[in-house]
Every structure is written in structure tokens, then in C-alpha cells.
Amino acid sequence: MIVAFSVTPLGVGEDVGAYVAEAVRVVRESGLPHRTDAMFTSVEGDWDEVMDVVRRAVAAVEARAPRVSLVLKGDIRPGVTDGLTGKVETVERYLSGG
User: Residue ranges per domain, the chain?
Assistant: First the structure.
């Protein structure tokens, strides 16, 4: 599965980068395939692995913020691996005329 999620600390002011970095650090240290952009971090693996990483990423922010917002979107497709790369490659292929 692939989960795209965003963890936002609330009640800490506008500058939330240091808090978000703690969540991203959890994802990176997980060893699972992942990608971070300006809005979401996507992580790929089996259900238990991915949800554990999301839970720990939220906990890392929760440890420093009085309130946390979580947005989560999942693509559950058994038997598919390398979806983070494969989905993007498919779109790029179509864009290049293939």
C-alpha cells in the first residue's frame, strides 16, 4: 500500500518546519520507500509497516505540540510493489507521447 499523509502541529505558531521535520525523520529512518513534497509525505509498504510509521510520525510531532492534525490518503492494492516510482513513470511515459 501507499499512504500519503500530512502531520501538522497546531497551537505552535506559523513556523512548523522543525515539527514536520521530526515526522519526516521517522519516515526516513523506517527504511520504507518514501517521498516527501511540499504538501505530503508518501510511504510504501504493507499495512502494518506503513500504519506504524504514520503512528510514530504523529507521536513525534505530538511530543512537542499541544495538538496535531493528520490528513491521510491510502492506495491499498495487494501484490503491487514499487508503486511510488511506477505510478510516476507511467504518467511520464504518457506525457512523452508513449
Answer: 2-95
Architecture of the CATH domain 2-95: 2-Layer Sandwich (3.30)
33-37, 63-67, 78-82: segment of lowest average pLDDT: 78-82
CB 54 within 8 A of CB 43: yes
Helices (H), the chain: 17-30, 47-62, 83-95
Backbone angles phi, psi at 74, to 5 degrees: -125, 145
Beta-bridge mates of residue 91: none
Report the distance separating Cα 26 and Cα 15, nearest Å: 20
- The reply to whether the predicted model has a pTM over 0.70 is yes
- The rounded distance, in Å, linking the Cα atoms of 64 and 39 is 20
